[in-house]
């Protein structure tokens, strides 16, 4: 690939979507740099814990990746798949199992997830593994994006100029925003009206040492620590599964909030996090639940926990995932959104379609995004050899410049991903209503609940990712 036709890609954000995209570009020989707002942590692999927290809006403790996500990782980059294999914890059974948290600790519905599938891990461990596989210097920490402008460097080439909060600037041929739920690049593209909003749900997350969990629970309940369980009930639910080679029990508690607006705690460094005492707020959410399920709640740390507000984009969906159209925020910058730089700008992962954790699919959909983007960017910069065997740009027709091909790739990406990902945003909210008994009769019926949750999970899991990419490439070819 000749230097003249090789794009330089800037990735904003080093969360799961950003780092897996970087690995996909690395595997395809496309130059990139990742810019991450979190600072370098000198006590461990740079920044992974801070990155995990910064990108999730939920603490970034444990994460489960569904079958579609595993397939996408393997297609995106062998290095990503290997990083996941190194940290993925198998479940004790190949079923997702649900418990009526008020009636009984017995399972009332179970769903086959696939042999050895839907494994869990610590989010920071996965980030660290992917980061380790990238060349030194490709991920730059402490870079909070301020604005994006046209390149204007006199090089005769379209592109973007990135301006960071520390006053530094960088140039690239295109920029992809993987900067999470509260994406700065999304605001630059579509204005403050595109911000994620409070879903009236908040969560508590904990990694409980497995020895502690098993010694604290009655013997008849120890089996609940061996695989993936969800405990459903009025206004709350709990999910648990083992991670870290069965040494930790990942525990997520989600509670409904009657308040439509999240009020940030005054003394919090993160406006979406507050501190609570477990004995007070968490315990109160499970009054009247079965004693055995309350025993699971009793495993949570006694000294207080972080309370994370869950934001999503149900109320304020963006109209597309690429820039270059109308609707940019001209008060922020003159070039992004409807300007020239917007044409080589796009969003991926939570920056594009933030949703809650309730279907366990947000990270996986970000990896699907990364796979499609990597394939389309490779197609956009294809170089062919002339009869003499020397390299030249593969398309000299109108629209054949590097910038035009990148813009076409982003438009095709948006067209291919929009409906599926927006479906997830909406149905993640529908799923939490099922888990938290908005329709009590339906949610407590094994047949009704099973029917409603099965088709949603199957739509997520049984997706033909390779067909998606093939159709996208055909659309790219049709634009030549």
UniProtKB/TrEMBL annotation:
Annotated GO biological process: secondary metabolite biosynthetic process
UniProtKB keywords: FAD, Flavoprotein, Oxidoreductase
Protein biosynthesis in keyword set: no
Lineage top rank: taxon: Eukaryota
GO molecular function: oxidoreductase activity
Alphabetical list of InterPro entries matching this protein: FAD/NAD-bd_sf (IPR036188), FAD_monoxygenase (IPR051104)
Gene3D superfamilies the UniProt entry points to: FAD/NAD(P)-binding domain
Cytoplasm is among the record's keywords: no
A matching Pfam family: NAD_binding_8
Record family assignment: Belongs to the paxM FAD-dependent monooxygenase family.
PANTHER family associated with the record: FAD-BINDING DOMAIN-CONTAINING PROTEIN-RELATED, HYDROXYLASE, PUTATIVE (AFU_ORTHOLOGUE AFUA_3G01460)-RELATED
Official protein name in the record: Salicylate hydroxylase
Lineage: Eukaryota, Fungi, Dikarya, Ascomycota, Pezizomycotina
């Amino acid at each position: 690939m000749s230097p003249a036709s090789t794009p330089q890609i800037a990735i904003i954000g080093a969360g799961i979507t950003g780092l897996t995209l970087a690995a996909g570009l690395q595997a395809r020989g496309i130059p990139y740099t990742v810019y991450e707002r979190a600072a370098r942590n000198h006590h461990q692999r740079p920044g992974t814990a801070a990155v995990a927290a910064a990108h999730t809006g939920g603490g970034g403790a444990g994460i489960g990746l569904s079958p579609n996500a595993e397939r996408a990782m393997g297609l995106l980059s062998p290095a990503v798949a290997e990083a996941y294999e190194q940290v993925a914890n198998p479940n004790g059974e190949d079923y997702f199992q649900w418990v009526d948290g008020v009636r009984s600790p017995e399972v009332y519905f179970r769903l086959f997830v696939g042999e050895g599938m839907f494994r869990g891990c610590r989010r920071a461990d996965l980030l660290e593994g992917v980061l380790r596989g990238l060349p030194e210097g490709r991920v730059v920490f402490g870079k909070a994006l301020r604005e994006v402008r046209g390149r204007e460097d006199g090089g005769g080439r379209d592109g973007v100029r990135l301006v960071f909060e520390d006053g530094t600037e960088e140039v690239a041929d295109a920029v992809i925003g993987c900067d999470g739920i509260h994406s700065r690049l999304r605001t630059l593209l579509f204005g403050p009206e595109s911000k994620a909003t409070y879903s009236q749900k908040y969560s508590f997350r904990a990694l409980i040492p497995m020895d502690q969990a098993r010694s604290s629970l009655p013997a008849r309940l120890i089996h609940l620590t061996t695989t993936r369980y969800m405990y459903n009930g009025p206004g709350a639910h709990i999910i648990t599964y083992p991670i870290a080679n069965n040494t930790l029990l990942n525990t997520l508690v989600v509670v409904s909030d009657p308040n439509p607006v999240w009020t940030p705690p005054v003394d919090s460094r993160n406006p979406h996090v507050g501190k609570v005492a477990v004995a007070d707020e968490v315990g109160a959410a499970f009054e009247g639940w079965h004693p055995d399920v309350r025993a699971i709640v009793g495993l949570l740390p006694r000294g207080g926990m972080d309370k994370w507000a869950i934001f999503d984009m149900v109320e304020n969906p963006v109209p597309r995932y690429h820039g270059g159209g109308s609707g940019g925020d001209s008060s922020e910058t003159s070039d992004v959104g409807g300007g020239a730089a917007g044409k080589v700008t796009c969003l991926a992962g939570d920056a594009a379609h933030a949703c809650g954790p309730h279907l366990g699919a947000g990270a996986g959909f970000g990896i699907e995004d990364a796979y499609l983007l990597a394939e389309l960017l490779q197609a956009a910069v294809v170089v062919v050899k002339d009869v003499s065997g020397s390299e030249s740009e593969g398309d000299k027709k109108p629209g054949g410049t590097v910038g035009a091909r990148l813009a076409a790739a982003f438009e095709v990406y948006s067209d291919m991903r929009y409906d599926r990902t927006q479906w997830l945003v909406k149905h993640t909210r529908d799923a939490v209503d099922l888990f938290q008994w908005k329709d009590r009769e339906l949610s407590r019926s094994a047949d009704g609940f099973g029917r409603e949750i099965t088709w949603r999970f199957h739509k997520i899991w049984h997706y033909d990712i390779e067909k998606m990419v093939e159709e996208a490439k055909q659309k790219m070819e049709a634009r030549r």
